Amino acid sequence: PHPSVLSLSPSSLSVDAVGLQRQIDELAAFSDTPAPSVTRILYSEKDVLARSYIKSLMKEAALSVREDAVGNIFGRWNGYEAGLPAVATGSHIDAIPFSGKYDGVVGVLGALEAINTLKRSNFQPRRSLEVIMFTSEEPTRFGISCLGSRLLAGSEAAAAALKQAVDGQNISFFDAAKSAGYKICQEDLPNVSLTKESYSAFLELHIEQGPILEEEGRSFYVSIGIVTAIAAPASIKVGFEGNGGHAGAVLMPARNDAGLAAAELALAVEKHVLASGSIDTVGTVGILELHPGAINSIPSRSHLEIDTRDIDEKRRNTVIEKIQHSASKIAKDRGVKLSQFTVVNQDPPALCDESIINAMEAASRHLNLSHKLMISRAYHDSLFMARISPMGMIFIPCYKGYSHKPEEYASMEDIANGVKVLALTLAKLSLD
Ligand code: HGY
Ligand code: MN
Ligand code: MN
Ligand code: MN
């Protein structure tokens, strides 16, 4: 008979919170910007150093380590029925410019600590347990979010987009990969995809990146968020072109200002999002570049990148259609050319698996941790892993919901709670 998970009494789950915090701090040092900010971009020199750090921790945990063609890293603890589909958990360690040191990292280092905690409590996994470090979750370098997990989930759109993807320095995806030691070509990408039988469950531990758990923390402390669904993200690239010219000498009626066209579209994004009729529709223009970018030169080119999301896919797609309509209308009214309107990704939402949610609730109750069901408005690698495996996510509170900025913070106690819920849930699912 399998040792029941509940033999893992809460006291037997001793998380090395101090050691975990030290690892979080050590990993944060691999950054292209000074502390307390973290910048760690896909395939950069700091990313490569961070990857070897993660691999060394996996080896220290006596996991068998492998990497796939694009650098997704897998650390496996073989179960006593290693032939069964494994239970996987993981997240990312890449970090957008000037961000924090917990986003993604808690789900990679915390997963390794969950494994070590189970090992210290003499737990024997039936299904193997596998920790995954996804090669890059942030869209920073090539504009494609969740690059590693999209390819693992078999996304042909992601593989096709990589064919001509270049970064801000005009370096191609494949040259960037090569510089990081991944000698790959287009034909290698389909081999990255995993079959649907690879895992019986995929879990991700992550900071909430929103204020709900922490806000309630002020009244009654909610330690654990159990995610029920992940919102549907979309990103759009837009370009306008005008004649530009001298900011003093060209009179207003003769202008077709590409910068003002961009500004008008940015406000149209806000208008269409607010008109959706739901608080769950969001949108922003995170990138707005003007060329030539001189105060006394009328912008002849503008480039915007729009991020819009909703938990309701249809409602989000209606917003995208309205944005596209506005872009064409603004171009016509202002006599500028709409040189680009590309929907980079328009992903469906993902639902979390009921039995995983129940296992997480049981673990939270067993640990006597307050918990609540909630949706994730941020996307995660889990959004794509849900396409090949039942998926679940555990959230921990983060200070004022701050994320994607250096003030991002989660306490050692909250991280340790998340690790314990993850460890117990992994153990339970491994014995299923
Ligand atoms: O943008 C996101 O939702 C994720 O945190 N990268
Ligand atoms: Mn992020
Ligand atoms: Mn993240
Ligand atoms: Mn409950």
| Class by SSE composition | alpha/beta
Helix content: 25-40%
Q: How is the main sheet built?
A: 9 strands, mixed
How many domains, in number, for the residues? Answer: 2
Q: Terminal Cα separation, in Å?
A: 12 Å
The backbone outline, from C-alpha atoms, is globular
The level-1 CATH class of the largest domain: Alpha Beta
- Superfamily (CATH H level) name of the largest domain: Zn peptidases
DSSP strand (E) fraction? 15-25%
Bound molecules: (2S)-amino(hydroxy)ethanoic acid, manganese (II) ion
CATH architecture of the largest domain: 3-Layer(aba) Sandwich
Report Rg: 23 Å
CATH topology type of the largest domain: Aminopeptidase
Features of the shown structure:
2 domains, 34% helix, Alpha-Beta Plaits, binds manganese (II) ion, Peptidase_M20, metal ion binding, binds (2S)-amino(hydroxy)ethanoic acid, Bact_exopeptidase_dim_dom, 432 residues, alpha/beta, hydrolase activity, acting on carbon-nitrogen (but not peptide) bonds, in linear amidines, 12 helices
What do you see in this structure?
The chain folds into two domains: 5-231 and 349-431, Zn peptidases (Aminopeptidase, 3-Layer(aba) Sandwich); 233-346, Alpha-Beta Plaits (2-Layer Sandwich). Helices cover 34% and strands 23% of the residues. The strands form three sheets. Strands 2, 3, 4, 6, 7, 8, 13, 14 and 15 form a nine-stranded mixed sheet that branches. By secondary structure, the chain is an alpha/beta fold. Helix 1 (17-28) packs across helix 12. The structure holds (2S)-amino(hydroxy)ethanoic acid and manganese (II) ion (3 copies). Its cofactor is Mn(2+).
